[in-house]
Structures are given as C-alpha cells and as structure tokens.
Amino acid sequence: MAYSFLHTAHHVGSKLAVYPVESQGSLAHAPRQNRTIFALIIINKAGGLVYNKNFHDGLNQISTNDYLVLAGTFHGVHAITARLNPLKGLPQATKDASAANSRPDPPSGLESLESENFRMQCFNTLTGTKFLLFTDTTQTNGDITMKKIYDLYADYVMKNPFYSLEMPIRCEIFDRKLLSYIREINNR
C-alpha cells in the first residue's frame, strides 16, 4: 500500500524547510510500516568510498565496484548541485553592503533524495566528508540520526590514533557502536 505525503514549507532564515505531513485520506486506516535504516555510506572529500554498511537483510547486494561508482557519482552530483546557487539566500542589498566584510554560508549541494522505495540523506561535514544515510521513506528525524552517527564517527574513528585520514575506516569499536545504535532504531 502506498503512502502519500503533502509537504508544508516554512522559511527559516535563508533556508526553505520542508516538513512532510501525512494526508488525511488513505493514511487513516493504513498499517504503519517499519521505520528502517537500510545503509550508511561515508565518502571522503576526494569522492572515495571510505565506509559502507548495510543494516537490512532484505537489500539486494551490490559489488564493491558498484559502491565505488556510487560514491564517485554522488560526489560529482553533489559538487554540481553546490554550484547551482553559490550565493544562496542573500538579498541583493545585503550582498552589496557586506561583500567586503563577510562571506555567505558555503553552498550545501544535494541534501536529500527521495524515491517511492527509500530516502537518501546527505550530511556534508566542514572537511568535505559526506555521510549518506539510506532509510525507509517513513523514517523521521533523519537529522538527529545523522548527528548521532557523526558523533560516533568523531568519537571512535577520528580519535583513533591508528586511523589515517581519508583512508577506509577499519575500526571495530565504531562498527559495534554504530550497529548497536542502528539496531535500536530499526527495532522500535
């Protein structure tokens, strides 16, 4: 059974925030789907795949080469979309008056992609590392989930003295903590 969503939009500062709202018609009697996190991919600032993990048994398995292609393709699309509006949200008068004094926020690029089967959210760090989270379309609070995943990454990968920046992540404690957190979400 398909779910339909209406979207409400609110201006928050210079950003447009879109919030899904369940429509009144078919959702009133529809059974709730499990809110599931399917996979996580981490891409370094050069577009290389440094981490991938599936959290759902029912997913089609893709090859390592396909993951590498996915990471590189997303990196390119993200770079292009960040260039589409490099001076976002600043009115012309503000741009002229403060051009010498300050810079606008850096462009963000592609942040979310939704299909009828999944939602992909991207969190781009200040260093250029990208976290791609693939979830069910009914999954809520993706930003909170991403923040927790980033906190785990910062605590167990970046503080690991044996980890080399921009290299594949091979950290057993990060895997354990991440898996524990995702299981907690998927079993709700």
Automatic annotation (TrEMBL):
InterPro entries: Longin-like_dom_sf (IPR011012), TRAPPC (IPR007233)
SUPFAM superfamilies in the cross-refs: SNARE-like
Entry GO terms, CC: endoplasmic reticulum; Golgi apparatus; TRAPP complex
Subcellular location: Endoplasmic reticulum; Golgi apparatus, cis-Golgi network; Golgi apparatus
CDD domains named in the record: TRAPPC4_synbindin
Keywords attached to this entry: Endoplasmic reticulum, ER-Golgi transport, Golgi apparatus, Transport
The keyword Acetylation is annotated on this UniProt entry: no
GO biological process annotation, one example: endoplasmic reticulum to Golgi vesicle-mediated transport
Subunit structure: Part of the multisubunit transport protein particle (TRAPP) complex.
Similarity field: Belongs to the TRAPP small subunits family. TRAPPC4 subfamily.
Name the record gives this protein: Trafficking protein particle complex subunit
